[in-house]
């Protein structure tokens, strides 16, 4: 089995701590949606004019607030499941690293791609990014899983195309004046693809650098016969 | 003798004429046609220009009664607003419909055409206008009991006059920018009843209002069906294009299918990553 893309498997303790930390994040997100005043959500949401005016924290916090409790619950469950799989495959450090850089990447992407979008809330962009990270890592790690992972990616792509064409399932349960922002899902998937491509390139570079160094050292190191010749010449 | 005969004949004619003038007219009609409003001076059929209708959900809808020039038998504005509130309620549950504004008839000009519709749409900030046109005919007839009106008391007690109110209400929804008819839905009703001569006009007025109420009640199921059909039609019809509104709100939302996909990941991981490792460890 090709094991690229996998770190040392995390221990049970690490897995338990990571699951607890993701669960805590999800609970906070749901509690904020359920109990926090609207003014708090408004001050944290992605708001294009406010971001352009310098409120940069919204690039991150916009993903952590939601329009309703059901919206938060659905996104929270997806984050928890995808997060646990990502931690198993990539490790807890990389999980949080990707979580924190993909969030502003999606927000900046939305500012560029959808200039008419004024307000955005929701974790689904990050959840989709984590799902794609896990899928790509699994694809690289296990050859027998590849047809299934490819099928998973095709279904994800078809779902996003359907959303782009206005087909949305009622389970999304967004308020009447809010549309499903499918671009956030595309940006999340792109972010995941970028991460995994970068990782792949880095691994190859590192591998080739080590190989080159190793070859160079082995060429430089004098052989036993050469050393004898040198000593004879020195005499 | 001759004089007295002429006098009796004159009095009888005057009496009969007086009674006849107190009876209601045989047919009362009130109508407001959408065609007369939109194409007031059209001698030929209006030309349809092929164009694209851009819909930017959540679509803002204006709701108005087609104005009429004659105000004699017009439905009171308060009743119109009550009826429009009911039509508004049928639009409300759809996520692709945003604000619904009720436009009072005074803001519309009889025979104003699309120019007037555009003015009002701008004023109320709506993209789509649902125009309620109506046509109501009231037939009045006397039955055999009307003969007892001659007793004077009978005019107060006997229900010798009958009415038959037939109403048709039609909602036509137009895209203001492209002047395109998006969809329409009709509702009809018939209200019959009888009244005494003294309170006929009051009963007939109530029947007219009841006729409108029933017609609007009949209108709502086809209106909902047309809305559903329209939602499906815009996905396939190349004449419609759904765009994002400037300043819209977006939600990053995982639906049921997304959740199922997320839940499939641990299964894939267990099946293809952990299961082979576990098996290998057991063999060793």
Q: Strands, helices and their partners?
A:
The complex is a heterodimer of chains A (235) and B (284).
Chain A: H1 12-35, H2 38-44, E1 46-47, H3 48-52, H4 58-61, H5 69-90, H6 92-113, E2 117-121, H7 124-141, H8 146-164, E3 178-180, H9 182-220, H10 224-234
Chain B: H1 2-22, E1 27-32, H2 34-38, E2 53-55, E3 59-65, H3 77-91, E4 97-103, H4 113-124, E5 128-142, H5 154-157, E6 161-175, E7 180-195, H6 200-236, E8 240-242, E9 248-251, H7 256-283
Parallel strand pairs in B: 2-8, 3-4, 3-5
Antiparallel strand pairs in B: 1-5, 5-6, 6-7
Helix pairs in contact in B: 3-6
Describe this structure in words.
- The complex is a heterodimer of chains A (235) and B (284).
- Chain A is mainly α.
- Chain A has a single domain, classed as Rhomboid-like (Rhomboid-like fold, Up-down Bundle), CATH 1.20.1540.
- Chain A has helices at residues 12-35, 38-44, 48-52, 58-61, 69-90, 92-113, 124-141, 146-164, 182-220, 224-234; strands spanning 46-47, 117-121, 178-180.
- Chain A has a two-stranded antiparallel sheet with strand order 1-2.
- The longest helix of chain A has 39 residues, at 182-220.
- Mean pLDDT of chain A is 82; it is low at 1-6.
- Helices cover 43% and strands 27% of the residues of chain B.
- Chain B has seven helices and nine strands; from the N terminus they run H-E-H-E-E-H-E-H-E-H-E-E-H-E-E-H.
- In chain B, the strands form two sheets. In chain B, strands 1, 3, 4, 5, 6 and 7 form a six-stranded mixed beta sheet that branches.
Q: How would you briefly describe this protein structure?
A:
The complex is a heterodimer of chains A (235) and B (284). Chain A contains ten helices and three strands. Chain A has 235 residues and is mainly alpha-helical.
Low-confidence stretches of chain B: none
N-to-C SSE string of chain B, H for helix and E for strand: HEHEEHEHEHEEHEEH
Bulk shape of chain A:
elongated
**SSE series of chain A:** HHEHHHHEHHEHH
Strand content of chain A: under 5%
- Using a beta-carbon cutoff below 8 angstroms, give the protein chain pair with the largest interface and the number of residues from each chain: A-B, 62 and 36 residues
Biggest sheet of chain A: strands side by side, in what order?
1-2
